[in-house]
Amino acid sequence: MYDKFMEWWQGYLVLEINGKQLERLVNLAVGQGLTIWSIQKKGPDKGQLSILLDDFYRLRPLLRKTDCRVRILRRGGLPFFTVSMKKRIGFVAGIMIFLIGLYAFSGMIWTVEVVGNEEIEEARVLELAEQLGIERGSFKFKVPPPEDVQQYLLQEMDRASWIGFRIEGTRAIIQVVEKVVPEEQKDLNPRHLIAKKRATIHEIFVEQGRPRVKVHDMVNPGDILVSGIIGNEQNYDMIPAKGKIMGEVWYETEVSVPLTMKPVQYTGESHRNDYLLIGSYAVKINGYDEISFDQYETETERKYLHVRDFRIPLGWKTEVLKETRNQQIKMSEEEAVRLGIKMARQDVLSRVKDGRIKKEKVLRKQLDNDKVYMKIHFAVIEEISKEKPILDPNPFEKNETENDG
After folding, report:
1. What is the pLDDT of residues 211-267, one digit of tens each?
2. 142 half-sphere exposure, CB direction, 13 A CA radius
């Protein structure tokens, strides 16, 4: 078998030969020392073979002698590769610049991340790290050992109990464990707990203060639920009322659900294109194969190299084309009603901070123009109290009669 490397080194052609004297042509070529291989008969008067580039010129007289015609199907090997690269010198230069830049920049820090901090400001940590040379665009070999970084940051941050430092690729990661400081007890001013919504009292949990309502009582916004005034008119004290009052609150919501839906669905098929970004030019590197689908959505991501705050005009762009299809879904009226109730529940609960649905009832249901329209009533158990400061220095008589009438 002919040496594949020499075949590539000298260059070769894949030829299609047409004529009635194919066998004679092959015999003459072999007899004159031409290097040919992969000889195939494609039909009565058609064949295919591979030949060295230099021997192709020696084949021409034999083609005339045997009255055969030739068509070049494919060119391969170093000579053609060199010519192709000369035509695309900008592309080659871009690839070389990108590879050299990638190698150089892989030895630099491109991002500094602070994790684990809650009370300690991230800007303060980054400022201290910068004093050690840990910043975007700095070389990794100039960064102090992790032990020195940890010791310095711990000395400068009193609220940190432990500092971790590591470099992963081009990321410098500073992990902070903060000291646990006991919460200071707030000195609360005297206050009532009042109703913020119209409701029926469902549950009462009082930690401090005097309850002013009972379970099943109806209350309106502003009514005192737990009084911060204890004692009687001659001997009383004002304290911050504390507790949790759960009430039954009523909501009505309207929804409409189409019986026919056409959601966009991903099939799982995708096509990826990769580009080398050089200035304002994008050179396609990957993704030349034919796209096998017509309907798709495109996701694009661009990444550029940076030195400190300066963006180098060299980067990489990735396009992912995801195949989509429109699928028509037909629902029954019962399925649309169930979906509408589910949507209404989500809408009601999104308006409630701390609560649950006790019961629900469809007040009205109507089918019109291929849509189901519904009005739904919900009874929700939720926290209904809010704070109200006691500002009057002599509030006993006023507040004792505030809920009356």
Report:
1. 999 999 999 999 999 998 888 877 888 889 999 999 999 999 999 999 988 778 888
2. 14
Instruction: Tell me if 62 sits within 8 A of 49, measured CB to CB.
Output: no
114 in Cβ contact with 165 (< 8 Å): no
> Measured between alpha carbons, how far is 19 from 37 in angstroms, rounded to an integer?
19
Between the two ends of the chain, the Cα-to-Cα distance in Å is 110
SS3 per-residue string spanning the chain: CCCHHHHHHHCEEEEEEECCCHHHHHHHHHHCCCCEEEEEEEECCEEEEEEEHHHHHHHHHHHHHCCCEEEEEEEECHHHHHHHHHHCHHHHHHHHHHHHHHHHHCCECCEEEEECCCCCCHHHHHHHHHHCCCCCCCEHHHCCCHHHHHHHHHHHCCCEEEEEEEEECCEEEEEEEECCCCCCCCCCCCEEEEECCCEEEEEEEEEECEECCCCCCEECCCCEEEECEEECCCCEEECECEEEEEEEEEEEEEEEEECEECCEEEEEEEEEEEEEEECCEEEEEECCCCCCCCCEEEEEEEEEEEECCEEEEEEEEEEEEEEEEECCEECCHHHHHHHHHHHHHHHHHHCCCCEEEEEEEEEEEEEECCEEEEEEEEEEEEECEEEEECCCCCCHHHHHCCCCC
pTM over 0.70: no
Cα 162 vs. chain centroid, distance in angstroms?
A: 31
User: What tens digit of pLDDT does each residue of 243-259 get?
Assistant: 999 999 999 999 999 99
* CA-based radius of gyration for the chain: 40
191, amino acid identity: R
Residue pair 110/167 in contact (Cβ under 8 Å)? The answer is no
Which domains are assigned to the chain? 4-82 (3.30.70.340), 111-178 (3.10.20.310), 191-241+386-400 (no CATH), 254-260+329-384 (no CATH), 263-326 (no CATH)
